[in-house]
Amino acid sequence: MQEDNVELEHIMKSHLQRGGGPLDEFDSRRVFSRLGIPVVPGGRADTAAEAEGLARRLGFPVVLKILGSGISHKTDVGGVRLNICCRQGVRSAYSDMMSAVNRQLPDADIRGVSVQKQVVGGVELIVGGLRDPQFGPVVTFGLGGIMTESLQEIAFRLAPIDRSDAGDMLRETAAWSLIRGYRGREPLDPSPICDVLVRLGDAVSRYRWLEEVEANPFILQPGAKAVAVDALVVVRRTAAE
What we know:
single chain, alpha+beta, Dna Ligase, domain 1, D-amino Acid Aminotransferase, Chain A, domain 1, 2 domains, seven-stranded antiparallel β-sheet, four-stranded antiparallel β-sheet, about 30% strand, globular
């Protein structure tokens, strides 16, 4: 636990020296891991060769995502490549993605790519925590992926929360019908989601430098498996605020 706190403080201080705001996905994943929130296996690569080597170690298929400051909507600028199933595919995807992002954002501070194991199947959810200017620390939950913006149905609780609160949040949303099973599909164990919501509530309550933390999608699968696919962490520009 002490080691986790030391690394979190190091990430925070290093980022504040660069002005604060959103961490790139690689550092956001590091924060998630230190908070005890599972993330999809992956790593960072600075060249096409490094990306290929990392993909081989992870096993195909993989996903490539651009890393850099000020790139909040990676898909919109061509900064995501899915379903990469071979070594040559990694090199092609790397080259195409770099070209696309440079065209769209010529001044972007690109810091390599994130290479991740592609997750197949499961229910896409959104889990998060933030520091609301009026209410203070808050935990959020709902359907993830494209359904987040389409339905705009999110459950909120003031943080910190307990597992009972987390369970109530699940049952308040349309996500619950997918978790409990529908049209003969196997029900999913909600325990991993409850655990994550409690941890997020503890994090935004404890770490005053933490402005926002979100995983969308956060995928729940059979066998009580759950993992964050996309990670976002925003550091307050003045940690003492």
